[in-house]
Amino acid sequence: MVKCIFCGKEESPHRGLHLIKNDGSISYYCSSKCRHNSIKLGRDSRKVRWTEAYRITRTKVKESIQKQKKIADDKANAVKEAAKETKKEVKSEVKPIKKVSVQKIK
Question: How far apart are CA 53 and CA 32, in angstroms?
Answer without folding.
Answer: 18
